[in-house]
Target: Putative CFEM domain-containing protein
Amino acid sequence: MRLFSAIVLMLLWCRGVWSLAKTIDTPAPLETPPLCGLKCIQQVTLAPGRCPLTNTTCLCTNVERNEQISLCVRSNCTVRETLQLQRYAKHECGAPSRDRTALVWIIGIIFLGLGLFAFVLRVVSKIFMRSQTWGYDDWMMLLAVAIMIPLNGLSYPISQIALGKDIWNVHPDDITQFLYIFFWEEVLYLAALPITKISILLFYLKVFSNKEIRLGCWILIGFNVVYFIVFEVTCIFQCSPVEGAWKVWDKEFPAKCNNINIQGWAAAVVNIVLDLATLILPLRELYSLSLSLKKKIMVMMMFCVGFLCVNPSHKAMSMSYVMADIAYSVTIVSIVRLHSLATYATTSNPTQDYVEIGYWSTIEIPVGIICASMPAIHSLFSVVFPKVFGTTQRGGKSNYANLSEPTDPSSGPLKLPAIRVQKEFFLKSGRRGDVTYTDHELIQIPFRDPNSCSSSEKKPISPRESV
Model:
């Protein structure tokens, strides 16, 4: 919970940086408008009843005049010339230019560090703890980390080139370079999503022995593999030829492209469905635990927002819920990211409007890696910080029963020393396959006679029983 609060505070801080960056006034340098644009301006402004060329306020605020100029420019100018004219107009009208480049790379680098730190702790846990073994889930997570590093690392060069600036303030050649880097970020992002979920599902296979859950895990793994293949192929070949993905923007490169907006929405929605299926899958097994209905509901609610940490060295499951809200944030990040897709591949200012898509993508993958590493991290911390993260075993102690002054019908009350009886028990339950078992161990602690120096040892008085 503390870690989740820290991440929320960090996101709020990043939002503050974003708000400040929006208001930075960085006017573009004065530049001569292209000839085609200058002709359109003269044609519209010299018409009877229009604003005179010397009245800047009228020229900048007259909506009807600006729409007519835009129609003329689109018909007579290239995309590059249109951006040049737009840059000139923004400068002449004193319009502020937004610069959110710092927001892009700061978020990317911070979450890259968090994801790497979580994975390092996971590896340390596997190396130094006997109960933790390196498995297929760890290999998949290693692959996800290998993808996360360039994905988040590219947030710096792409922000320095264009992402976070208004497109009319970016050199046309830099726009091509920006779209080239963004293309590879898409490829890396779509690869990391299913790989992270496959790692979590492989972890489920290590934890749960129920046949239905194991079958569900394999089915979801299959769906994630299909997701990987389908959306990687459609992303790489979104345009024909492939380089059209980063060159077709100025309409000077001949290429045919898919509907990228629909493609992005489809990938995001299917990913959220797979996220929810991964979280819901073990709920039936948790419901079958030997707990009261109230506790079952609490356990399932906690699992829906967290990960079940199981110590595989124990035959019976030992459950500990670690940073519950963090895991749920994986799906939350995916849902929040949907909002940023509204302008995806449809905006005329991608270098500015893709900022949200960029930084939410660099948040989602590291958070997924952190969540998947939580069980191993918790096991490590339970040894290093046992008082804070140690696994608790639930037992029970009854109250003391005082038996005193027994009566004899013939002689009246007898004055005997008080007898103190302490009863202790230990309860352990779990599942082996489809069989539920419960072990009871009762220990009788005999009293010590205050008038005697003798005492006896603890002796178990009840055998183990299975139900």
Notes: The CA atoms of residues 38 and 85 lie 8 Å apart. The longest strand covers residues 419-432. The domain at 101-389 is CATH 1.20.1070 (Rhopdopsin 7-helix transmembrane proteins).
